[in-house]
Structures are given as structure tokens and as C-alpha cells.
Amino acid sequence: MTKYLLLLLSIGFTSCVSTSQKNLKKNPLIQGDVHQIIEKKYNTKLSEGKYVLVDEGIPSRYIYTYNEQNVMTKREITNQDGRVVWHIDYINNDNGIVKTSSSFYEDLLESKYENKIIDDKIVETKHFDLNGKLTRTQLKEYEGDKLSKLTEIKQNGTLSLTAFFEHKDGFLSRIIEKDPSDKVINSINYNRDNFGYITKIVVEKNGVTEVRIFQYDYDQKQNWVKKYCFDEDSILQVVAVRDIIYADSKNQKITSKTFLGEWQIVATESDRLVFNEDQTFKMSEKWNEEITGTWSIDEKAQLLTLIQENQKELNFNISSKGSSLYLENTEGDISIQLERNAPAIDMDFDKKVEEAFFMHKWQMEGRENQYIEFLSDNILLELRPDREPKEDYWELDEERCILRIGEGRRKTELHYRFDDNELKFYDDNKEVVQIFIKVEKEIAN
Questions:
Q1: DSSP characters for 364-413?
Q2: Are residues 202 and 64 in the same domain?
Q3: Alpha-carbon distances of 325 from 155, 254, 258, rounded to whole Å
């Protein structure tokens, strides 16, 4: 089912694109002319109250290659050594619609699908295994240019499931899946920001609800370059970082300034290579002594020269892909990939995220007309219908998950936790002392 959900996501993504050749629109979730996107995902852990990115336990990189229409033509996943182990090739028609897609693992075909296209709409998708045997067929219906219904038929001709799609502001907003008896087996709801990126996913399956929340950092073209993924308790789980290679920058020359700073040598646990402004370098290896020397770049020839202290000279042809650098010695027997260390999370990020969850109006559980409202500038309002609003001060200690209310001798500290639409306060014994329910209409800041 997981693979199928991923497929549905890709279908919804594709259905957002206008497919009229006369009025061809580029992918609305990518701004500018993009050649390639290199995405790396990091797990997180808490260390001394701060989130630290951990480069382990998940594939190293996801590489997406696009054509001049910003339509994906290839998707790759590399391992920790930087080697591509899995890739999908797409063959598109002139309007950017996928005709066929083939999935490979270690260069061996795993699966394939073929689309039947009528009037620039995919009306049928046939899926095949590695031996070319049909495994399932999907029939698709549309409202306007948006996918509205998908019927999946098993190999033996029996109904597998039916999925219904809803859209809002041109983007996929909801998927409902039903089994052959017309029972809802799965539903997915999407909230999006002003750029169309998903900010919240709510999945309901077999009576269990799973929530994922997302926040983004953007580049100057309003494409996201960092995505923060939280669980339903607002705990940061994964951070995705993207290098976006635009068509007008993919052939830019590498300069001395590009090299300055510390780099990690890919496919090693702890090797570091540092290029200093005084043209000295230092290579730190896990099991060996440091290697030091001088470095220089012939920018016209795109050639890096390293001269070690023992006067041994090495020359490398240099190239780049995103923020990574590639070095290959002139003899062609040494290849090195350099990348920057895991990016740091903004020191104010944790506080910014936590405060965003507080900034609402909350109703006290069991008290119909009693509310509190968190405002900017650390203002807390206590609201009751029988008296004027009472104003107080509030601040967060996000490292200890403590809310402070009041100042000086009136200051009170409460442990807090978010649980769906509830804000719970605890005493020092971890006993719940008060619960507030979020009022659906958010306050305007």
C-alpha cells in the first residue's frame, strides 16, 4: 500500500500541470528553469535541547532531473558512497506527459508502467513486473483537467480499489480510497501554503490517524531549499535539504572562493578537507595523520593543484553539481566528491516553531466561555464574557518545554505538550492540571 500511496502522490502532482501544448504551463511547484534538484535527507536527534542533523539510516541523495518544461525525466537514489543504486526513467510526450516509466535497481529492471493518453489526459495506466507480466491496471477519470477518480483492476480482472481525488486552488487536497465493497479504507488530507507546498498531511487508515506537519525555507525564486518534517507532537523528525541547479547556472565556473571552508569527503566517516584563505589546506583522516600543504586553482582550465609538505604534487580536474564538488586527478585513477557538512538549524528555529503552535485562541476545557489567546510581543489575553480582557506576559523555554506566565514574583511555570488540537499543561509531577482546546479560527497577527 505504501508504494501505491506514493504513486497516488505522483499522480496528483502530475495532474496539477496543464497539458495543452498551445498553452503549456511549467510545473507549478517549481519556479524558474530548473535543470536538476539534489535532495538530501537527515534524521534528527535532540542534543542539549537543540536539534542536531544526523546523516545516517536513510539513503544519501535523491537526484531529480528535469527537461526545459520542468517535467521530470529521471529520478535517482544514491547510497552513502555516492553511487546510484536505484533509478526511474521517464519518457514523456511533447506536452510533458509521461508515456512510460521504468524502475531499475542496480541497473536491473524492477517494474514498468505505460500510460494511454487521450486528449492530453492519462486515461489508463498498465503496470508490469520485471518479466513484462501485467500486474494491475488503473483507469482514470477527470473533472476538467484534474484527476477525479481512479479505478484499480487486478491482474485477474477483479476490482482492487477505487480512489477519489479532490482539488483546491489547483492542487490536490484530498484522496479517499474505497475497497470493492465501497468501504472507505484510507483517506489523506493535504493543507498547503501560498506556494502550493504541503504544510500538513492527515492520514486516516483502519481507525488510526497519522499527522505530519511541514515547514519550509525558500530561495530567492521561492523554491524550497529546506523542509522540516514534524510528527503530530511537533517533534522534528527529518530535515530535507535541496540543492537546486538552475539551467542558467549549471555551467558556472568554479573559483577559488568556491573552495574556501571545510568539506566532507563523501564515502568516508570522518575525512575532512579544509581550504584556507592563505592558500593552505589540511586533510584530516580517521586513521592517519593530517596531511597539509598549499593549494591553488587555474580557473580558466578548471584545475586544482595540491602540493603537500613533502612537495608531492597532485592535479585534479574540477566540476560541480549543486553544492558538491568533484575532483578527478589528471591520470584518471582518483575520484573525490566533496560536500559541505550537515547544515545547521537556525538557533531560533525551535523557538519559532513552538511559538507558532501557541499563537491561537484556546478554550478552557469544561469552561464554555473562558478563553486564553496568545499574541505576538509576548502578550497573553485571558478572555471572559463578564469582564474586560486581562493582559499578561508569556514566554517559552523550548529546551525544557516550559511556558512561563507573568513576571517577577507573579511568574508561573508550566510544562506543556500539544496533542492534536489540545494544549495540555502539567505540574512538576507530570500530572495534567489544565487542558485547552484550540479554537479553529486562527488569530490574525
A1: ETT-TT-EEEEETTTEEEEEETTEEEEEEEEEEETTTTEEEESSGGG-EE
A2: yes
A3: 47, 9, 9
The Cα 162–Cα 174 span in angstroms is 14
Q: Looking at the predicted structure, is the pLDDT value of residue 109 above 80?
A: yes
- Clarify whether residues 232 and 363 are in a common domain: no
Same domain flag for 124 and 225? yes
Q: How many residues does the chain have?
A: 445
Query: What CA–CA distance (Å, rounded) separates 102 from 123?
Result: 19
Pairing of strands 184-192, 171-178: antiparallel
Distances (CA, A) of 49 to 202, 226, 347, 426: 28, 21, 11, 19
User: Within a domain: residue 344?
Assistant: no
Q: Are residues 286 and 417 in the same domain?
A: no
Lowest pLDDT segment from 88-97, 111-120, 182-191, 348-357: 348-357
- What gap in Å lies between CA 200 and CA 191, rounded to an integer? 5
> Do 306 and 387 belong together in one domain?
no
So what's the pLDDT on residue 76? 95
Q: Are residues 203 and 331 in the same domain?
A: no
Cα end-to-end distance, the chain, whole Å:
41
Residue 61, classed as helix, strand or coil, is strand
Q: Which of 246, 275, 307 is the last residue before a domain boundary? A: 246
307 and 202 in a common domain: no
Q: What is the pLDDT of residues 10-49, one digit of tens each?
A: 333 333 333 333 334 467 788 889 999 999 888 887 655 4
CATH number at residue 331: 2.40.128.370
Question: Residue 86: what pLDDT?
Answer: 94
Residue 154 pLDDT > 90: yes
Grid cell of 364 as nine digits: 478552557
Cell 547544515 identifies what position? Answer: 343
pLDDT for the residue 335: 83
Out of 54-58, 208-212, 316-320, pick the least confident: 54-58
d(CA 387, CA 144): 53
Domain span at 260:
256-339
Whether residue 286 has pLDDT greater than 70: no
User: Which CATH number characterizes residue 88's domain?
Assistant: 2.40.160
Residue 309 C-alpha cell reads as: 609538505
Collapsing DSSP to helix, strand or coil, 42 comes out as: strand
